[in-house]
Amino acid sequence: MRKFQTPEGTYDVLPDRAVERDRLEQTAKKVLERAGYGRIETPTFESTELFARGVGAATDVVQKEMFTFGDEEKSFTLRPEGTAPTVRAYMEHGMHKLPQPVKLWYLSSFFRREKPQAGRFRQFWQIGAEAIGSPDPAVDAELIVLLAELLEAIGARDTKLVIATLGQPDARAAYREELTAYLRANEDQLSPEVVSRIDLNPLRAFDAKHESTQRVMANAPRLIDRLPQEDLDHFAAVQDLLQAADLAYEVDTTLVRGLDYYTRTLFEFQSGALEAAQNTLGGGGRYDGLAEVLGGAPTPGVGWAAGVERMLMASTQPPAIEAPVDLFVAYPPEHRVAAFKLASDARRAGHSARLELAGRSIKGQLKQASRIRPRYVAVFGDEGVQLRDRDGGEDKVVAPETVMHHIRGSL
After folding, report:
1. How many Cα neighbours within 13 Å face the side chain of 219?
2. Annotated binding site
3. How confident is the model at residue 411 (pLDDT cuts 50, 70, 90)?
4. Neighbours of 328 (CB within 10 A)
5. Annotated binding site for L-histidine, which residues?
6. Cβ-count burial of 94 within 10 angstroms (0-12 exposed, 13-18 middle, 19+ buried)?
7. Which helix (H) or strand (E) is 295 found in, with range?
8. 141-166 pLDDT, tens per residue?
9. Whole-number pLDDT of residue 409
10. Which of 191, 343, 388, 403 has the fewest CB within 10 Å, making it most exposed?
11. What's the average model confidence in pLDDT over 116-137?
């Protein structure tokens, strides 16, 4: 028989891990929905043009990492990120008519064709939050604080918040020309990869791991020194609000992210408990020009995404424990129908009930019950149902139709 395995860079979520992921989802739901964020889910695949225009044609995501299918007339892509689809949904469904900002969150799978590593997969899951429709720096600060609350709630280890500002496109364009000239003047010391994208995306040079490139970038001009006062005031207001929320942070003038739509505020949370190459738990920023790039009216927005797998890797929470079982029903073959009815009645009444389904002997069934550790074990026999209370109560034989009466008051 041929054996199949999951493709490289993907994985199966087995029941024991699913419990931990469910707990993370419920924590995110509680943190975000009490701040007014509503759940949204967008399609797994979208028009390729949505990401080419929204994420940026010069980014690694679009150039190298997207899973795309179709033909020249109609091309689709498995979503590599969640912000562009969310903004598309905002425009398509007329959410601009709602009170602004519209606050949304999601937990979805995403896909990138990149080299699999610890905490980095070709199919991965992210929790994301987006607030669309307001330029107020308080929106930036609120989203940052909410991600901090989520990471604290799951016990993420050794976290650090890093923030920066990219300013608005006009100011960044002038700086980009200055940085490009600087990189060209030092081209012989840069990695081939950085050289190849100087004209497409020079800011990504700050993210290079190449040692000689890092030495060059240590002396490179900084964007924050070239920004107009309006952008600096916005950044200062975000910092004031973070300080008011008692949230510590570091300003990193070299911080960049791999998507072109960001403007002004940029941030990420890092964990010292993970390897440096995969230590970012989540991050995001403001994207005031994205809706317009996608064909809509100018609409401010800000958001973040955090990797489910990395958050679980960094979490200090103990492994999730499955909910206790209230009732285990054991029976010989001649009592199958009555036993099945009892288990069904117990579940309908809101109890957790397990039924023997493997054809074990009564002895084997009782061993299985010991493994599951239910509160009650009901053993069918010719004399009635032996109801065993594993919590120190009295064992007794009762009629099958009265079992629910005996257990209802004590569960």
Report:
1. 9
2. 81-83, 112, 126, 130, 257, 261-262
3. low
4. 27
5. 81-83, 112, 126, 130, 257, 261-262
6. exposed
7. none
8. 999 999 999 999 999 999 999 999 99
9. 67
10. 191
11. 90
